[in-house]
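We store chain and fold; example below:
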Amino acid sequence: MSGFLELRYSESSIKRFQKEILSQRIASLFFSMSFVNLKRETLAVVDTAEYVPIIAVESISFEKAVLLLISIIEKMFETENRYFYIGEYRIASKYIMYDPGTSDAVLLYSPFIYKNRGQVTDDIAEVLILLSKKIELRDRGMASQAYRIFRRNRGDLKSIYRKLNRLYYDNYVAIVDEPIPKRAVD
C-alpha cells in the first residue's frame, strides 16, 4: 500500500534546520518529508505507505490503543533532543497515522504553539477519547482509567507516561505469581 500526501505550510512556519531534520527522519515522531519551496509557501510531500489515519481505524484493542499513546509520548520526549520541543507542534487525531501491522504511530508535522503543557495533555486525552470509541465494550473500563490518568495529571506528561505504562504492564504484561503445581507421583 502506498500513499503520498502533499502538505502546504506558510513560508516561515518551518525553520531550515527543522526541514533538514524532517527530511532525514531523524525525529521518529514525524514522517520523513520532502520539501519544495514555492513563492509564498513550502510544499511537503510525505510517503504514508502502510499507515492509515487513526480517525479511519474502525476498531482497536485497548492494549494497542494504550501502546499507541505510550509510543507517541515516548517519541515526544525523544524528539525534544532534536529541537522539536513539546508544545511547538500540534497533537491531534487528524495528524496521527497508525500502522496496524506494527502498531507504530507517526505524526504529520504541524507547527503550533501551545500556551502550556496542560493543553498538550488535553489534546492527547482527546486522542484517547477518539480511540475509546473504537475499543471493544469490555475494555472501555480500562480506557476510562486511562482517561482519569490524564485528568488527574493534567500538564505532567512524565507522570502520565509512567502511569499509562503501569496500566499497560498491570493488565497485559504482569506475570502471575502463583506457584507451579507439583506433579502427582504414582
Remarks:
- The longest strand covers residues 4-10.
- The two ends are 59 Å apart (CA to CA).
- Residues 62-79 form the longest helix (18 residues).
